[in-house]
Write a structure and sequence with these properties.
20 strands; globular; 10-stranded mixed β-sheet; alpha+beta; 8-stranded mixed β-sheet; 584 residues
Length: 584
């Protein structure tokens, strides 16, 4: 399917099909990865998502791409090996969005935690405990072995108290040592997810991905899909149905086989995060992440985020993935964890710019401590039976870092089910804007050449390349041909740039653009006038009436206030503000 195809063209392509070798339900990173893997093998796979791409847990990650240091303690050496390998693949294949991140662990003692760590390793204890310098150094030494064998990061360092105080004068008095090592972070996970879809459709023109399309029922032979906007329904008979529903896997299985008694597969936990505006803390971090254990032994993080600071996270078991938001007590918990490390840092409520949370699709577990539930992934096959004539392959668990490996394993299982063989590996294939994106040493020259080629200011070219990698080139070409004007309420974006995203990236709602195709929301840059300005742009591009635009605008503002703490976009305030603006 053409990447710039309209929604109607995509729906029309779906209307032409009554059967599909593979239908993937769930447009998070695991479903997207499996879609890409199958498309690379020439399979005309269909991917549907009831909301937008990477809307749930896949858009609520801690923004870390990491090797899984703490998995060593639970003996998951294979997961660490896989994580380090996939982390370094992403540093190479998605170098426009994934970057090295120096990480520091504050430590309060020399030998603590050794006995309990041994008990956890032997599965004799779930009890969290604080780790001492010797234990952390042992873990980091093992980590270095994997990194040297499978990766390319520098070795770890352990600092004594004097050196720790010299680098981190703001640390709490309990910090006696510190250890530093390298992992990675991702600047635009939702964008990377969409780029995987785009790459897949380019690799196999018969592959089709549609957001806002929900599986609503089945008759055992075929499934019924429903368009979220028009209500139109489509019947499709799959040979294999891949359940990539994440936290909703069990719910979807019940819909597929309501009379079948199936084991519970998911025991999800909720993770909430904050974005805060705090120049003092940002200065203290100086480009590093602090990865620490709070008062109760729960691992927490903080690191610079585009001039702000990202803080996280919680780990709370939930039964209803549809209703999760970052609650007030979670904000308090995260800020108390921050003060445990930096006791003199005060964060007023006004500094919290954005909140986000998601439900990790962890495997069902009887572990007493949520942090001990494995982050590994697995495949569960429900073969055809009286309830469904097609095979159902469930994707359980997983994490962002290892999405490619999980997608590869899932695709290989599907290929066997449909009688096909793998044609190529995705291991060394660049993703989206990472294709032809130069290494850091060559970026200045590359950007200068682009500025000259398109006759545009170097700062503008650099900004677009930072946002889209090499996928900025068609935008630069359009700017050269048509010219562009900055938005009235955000000078770093133009109408042309946003219209390009709307037309080429399946944008259907305001939040798609504000939260997932751009970083406007998570970077705390949304204002009432800006949201309204972009709503006019979206409406004109998609052909909405003004009454529909206004209704959608109010609903979007209400959702942004509810789900992300953007209470200044509360509909009541919004109506008062826009009335004031219109009167000026």
């Amino acid at each position: 399917m053409e990447n710039n195809a309209t929604r109607e063209q995509r729906l029309n392509a779906l209307r032409q099909r009554t059967t599909a070798p593979v239908l993937i339900v769930g447009g998070g990173i695991n479903g997207i990865s499996t879609f890409r893997e199958l498309a690379l093998q020439g399979i005309p796979v269909i991917l549907v998502e009831k909301g937008d791409w990477c809307q749930a847990a896949s858009g609520a990650l801690s923004r870390m791409i990491h090797g899984g240091l703490r998995y060593l303690e639970t003996g998951e050496f294979t997961l660490v090996k896989e994580s380090v390998t996939e982390r370094d693949r992403l540093l190479k294949n998605a170098s426009h969005y994934v970057f090295p991140l120096r990480t520091t662990v504050p430590i309060d003692n020399l030998g603590g935690g050794l006995i309990n760590a041994t008990r956890r390793f032997l599965r004799l204890s779930d009890k969290p405990t604080r780790r001492g310098a010797l234990l952390i150094k042992t873990g980091l030494s093992l980590y270095d072995i994997y990194t040297r064998q499978y990766g390319s990061m520098p070795k770890h360092q352990v600092r004594a108290e004097a050196a720790t105080r010299d680098r981190w004068p703001g640390f709490a008095p309990w910090v006696k040592y510190s250890a530093s090592y390298y992992d990675a972070w991702i600047s635009a996970p939702e964008r990377l997810g969409y780029e995987l879809i785009e790459d897949a459709e380019r690799a196999c023109p018969d592959a089709l991905a549609l957001n806002y399309l929900q599986l609503v029922s089945t008759n055992g032979e075929s499934v019924t899909l429903q368009d979220a906007f028009s209500g139109e329904r489509f019947a499709l008979q799959p040979h294999v149905l891949v359940n990539a529903g994440g936290a909703w896997i069990d719910q979807l299985n019940q819909r597929l086989a309501p009379t079948e008694t199936t084991a519970r597969l998911i025991g999800g936990t909720k993770g909430s995060h904050l974005i805060i505006d705090h120049p003092e803390l940002l200065h203290m971090l100086d480009g590093e992440m602090v990865y620490f254990e709070n008062q109760e032994g729960r691992v927490c993080i903080m690191f610079p985020w585009f001039g702000k600071v990202l803080l996280g996270s919680t780990d709370i078991r939930v039964d209803d993935p549809d209703s999760v938001v970052c609650e007030e007590d979670e904000k308090t918990y995260i800020l108390e964890s921050l003060r445990f490390v930096f006791p003199n840092v005060v964060v007023p409520e006004s500094s919290i710019l954005y909140t986000f949370c998601g439900v990790r699709p962890l495997p069902a577990s009887d572990a007493k401590v949520n942090g001990q539930i494995s982050r590994n992934h697995s495949l569960v096959l429900l073969p055809p039976d009286a309830a469904h004539a097609y095979s159902v392959l469930c994707l359980v668990g997983g994490k962002w870092t290892t999405f490619r490996q999980f997608g590869e394993e899932a695709a290989d299982r599907v290929l066997r089910l449909v009688g096909e063989k793998r044609r190529q590996s995705s291991g060394d294939i660049p993703i989206g804007g990472g294709r032809d994106f130069p290494a850091p040493s060559g970026q200045t020259r590359w950007l200068t050449q682009l500025a000259q080629q398109y006759d545009l200011p170097l700062p503008r070219v650099s900004l677009l390349a930072k946002r889209y990698g090499s996928r900025a080139l068609p935008i630069l070409q359009q700017i050269q041909q048509q010219g562009e004007q900055p938005l009235q309420y955000h000078s770093d974006y133009s109408a042309l740039e946003l219209r390009y995203l709307i037309e080429h990236e399946q944008v259907q709602q305001l939040e798609d653009l504000l939260v997932r195709r751009t970083s406007l929301a998570i970077c705390g840059e949304l204002t009432l006038p800006l949201v309204e300005e972009i709503s006019h742009l979206l409406a004109s591009t998609l052909g909405w009436s003004d009454s529909h635009r206004k209704q959608h605008l109010e609903q979007s503002c209400a959702r942004l206030a509810q789900w992300h703490g953007l209470t200044h976009l509360n509909p009541t305030i919004f109506q008062e503000e826009t009335q004031h603006v219109s009167n000026q």
